[in-house]
Amino acid sequence: MNDIIKAMQERRSIRKFTAEPVAKEDISQIIEAGLYAASGMGKQAAMVIAVTDKKCRDQIAEDNRRIGGWKEGFDPFYGAPVILIVLGNKEVPTYKYDGSLVMGNLMLAAHSLGLGSIWIHRAKEEFEMDAYKELLKKLGVEGEWEGIGHCALGHMDGELPKAADRKDGRVIWIEDETLA
After folding, report:
1. pTM (2 decimals)?
2. d(CA 117, CA 2)
3. Lowest mean pLDDT among 38-47, 77-86, 108-117, 159-168
4. Residue 62 domain-assigned?
5. 88: domain range?
6. How do residues 121-137 score in pLDDT, each as one tens digit?
7. 18 in a structural domain
């Protein structure tokens, strides 16, 4: 089987990470793979903010927890030491799709390097908050950006989860004479 297709079939969302740091070289490779995702009309309307600073990471996790309505002490990033935040440029009509494709590439690249990842939502709500708009200004990011998702990234603690069975009835073929 083709290595890329095999990785697509084997990649799983990881919900338990070790505290072991992720090599910056690995993070950079993963981000580069994300930025090579297809984009509408080649506009490349998504960007990635890499968060490795523990204090900043923990603040984002706490804000995400509050938005999600979980009990105090819950970590919606499951202990992952790295958060890759994908934002979409709202001036480009395909920004949500472009950002989603970046997220997929990030997770697949992480798996290919032996790292775990999971897509965590609520980035949209975070970047609607004044504090996150200010963060973007401090980072020199101009324009209107929407949070697409967080790719929580790290070394998985435990075994790779088993794949769920695929649901039937999700493919319909239209072949020669199908509609005749």
Report:
1. 0.95
2. 22
3. 159-168
4. yes
5. 30-154
6. 999 999 999 999 999 99
7. no
